[in-house]
Amino acid sequence: MLSVRRDIKVAIIFDDAILPHHYQIAYELYKLGIPATFYVVTHKNPWSQYLKYAKKISDMKHEIGSHGAYHLDLMKISDEKLLFEIEESKKVLEKMTEKNVIGFAYPYGLYNLRIISAVSRLYGYGRTIYLRSVKTCDSVNIAENDRYSICGLCNPSPRPTFEIIRKILNDLNNDLMTVWIFHFEPLWKVLTVIKTFKSLGAEFLYVKDLADELG
């Protein structure tokens, strides 16, 4: 059994967006009143073909963030290319959505102080990822993270969702703020995560709201 905690805050997010698949999920979450954050690749096919969905998803009250122009490993490119990746993608998304884009998700979850320095000039927060193979942050409870190294937990298949959430909660002695990352998983997997957290009384927020709580 999971012990219900008084303060569980969850951000549901999607990397490598936007494809028609993400638009359909965004619509279903909108109908359920669940806010989500979508990190968009702006210049690379096939994602660039579907940028029109960014406006529609934004109008559904979801958050739009940047995932770079071409989804490059930012640690391996020049300062000039780094600036293009973070600046041009932001310009495109802000023109498309007519809203300020304040979040950046590091492609492949990889970043360093040089990248943070560049991102922090243009964005309000930066988000990374925690996988067995990519452990770029210390804790999936982002209350322990910095706003430019917010850790997201990638949907950890094949382990059951309930088992993962139970382990996270049982390992904590305090309140939980967490970010749950999806890529191309089917809707039923997304809803399974949401249903599990809802049963615990969780509050669903945008990543930008969680970032603001980090100060």
Offer a quick outline of the entry.
This protein has helices spanning 20-32, 52-59, 79-97, 113-122, 161-170, 187-199, 207-213; strands at residues 8-17, 36-40, 63-66, 103-105, 125-130, 150-154, 176-182, 203-204. It is an alpha/beta fold and 215 residues long.
Strand content: 15-25%
* Beta strand count: 8
Rg: 16 Å
Overall mean pLDDT stands at 91
Helix content: 25-40%
Q: Can you put this structure into words, describing what you see?
A:
With 215 residues, this protein is α/β, with parallel strands linked by helices. It has 7 helices and 8 strands; from the N terminus they run βαβαβαβαββαβαβα. It has helices spanning 20-32, 52-59, 79-97, 113-122, 161-170, 187-199, 207-213; strands spanning 8-17, 36-40, 63-66, 103-105, 125-130, 150-154, 176-182, 203-204. Strands 1, 2, 3, 4, 5, 6, 7 and 8 form an 8-stranded parallel β-sheet that branches. Strand 4 (103-105), helix 4 and strand 5 (125-130) form a beta-alpha-beta unit. Helix 1 (20-32) runs parallel beside helix 2 and helix 3 (79-97) packs parallel to helix 4. The chain is globular. The N and C termini lie far apart (33 Å).
Helices and strands, with pairings:
Blueprint: E1 8-17, H1 20-32, E2 36-40, H2 52-59, E3 63-66, H3 79-97, E4 103-105, H4 113-122, E5 125-130, E6 150-154, H5 161-170, E7 176-182, H6 187-199, E8 203-204, H7 207-213
Parallel strand pairs: 1-2, 1-7, 1-8, 2-3, 4-5, 5-6, 6-7
Helix pairs in contact: 1-2, 3-4
